[in-house]
Amino acid sequence: MNNLLGDVQFFTGKKQYLKLHQDIYEPLRNMYNDLKESVCYHFDLYRNGEANRPDVLLSVLLEHQKKLFKIEKKNEKDCEWDIIYANFCDNMDDKIEEFRAKTIYHCDEEKISHHPISSIFYNKNIK
């Protein structure tokens, strides 16, 4: 990734390089480091028997789940839907498309439709 950023700086200049670095590279690197340092650390402790608190592991997972995913809830009269999107990845796609359109090709951005990665259906009438 660092080599790619260096090529971008060569072709587009320092201003675009800094924008790309701040908008795309840093969030990806920070998310990776955060997952590695926090989630993997707690998994290793739990797996090795050094920690006997699964609630701590679950709270860490839920915290990171909120950073990575977005959940939309839709209600109808007899049913409910939870629609899950990969929010972090979708935001990165939008930023990459903006960079592609404005910096590389100098054209209008293409609309990226973000599709759910999962959906969960609940029937309210079943007891």
Outline the biggest β-sheet: 3 strands, antiparallel
> What is the number of E strands?
3
Distance between the termini: 52 Å
Query: How are the strands of the largest sheet arranged?
Result: 1-2-3
Bin the strand percentage.
5-15%
| Helix-residue proportion | 55-70%
Radius of gyration: 20 Å
In round numbers, the mean pLDDT is 88
The geometry reads as flat
Tell me the number of helical segments per DSSP (H or I, 4 or more residues long).
Answer: 4
Uncertain regions: pLDDT < 50 for 5+ in a row? none
Q: Specify the structural class.
A: alpha+beta
What series of H and E elements makes up the topology? HHHEEHE
Structure in a nutshell:
The protein is an alpha+beta fold.
What does it look like?
The chain is an alpha+beta fold and 127 residues long. Helix content is 61%, strand content 15%. The protein contains 4 helices and 3 strands; from the N terminus they run αααββαβ. Strands 1-2-3 form a 3-stranded antiparallel beta sheet. α1 (2-12) packs antiparallel against α2 (14-47).
Descriptive tags:
single chain; 127 residues; alpha+beta; three-stranded antiparallel beta sheet; 4 helices; 3 strands
Write the layout of secondary structure elements.
Layout: H1 2-12, H2 14-47, H3 54-68, E1 70-75, E2 79-85, H4 87-104, E3 118-123
Antiparallel strand pairs: 1-2, 2-3
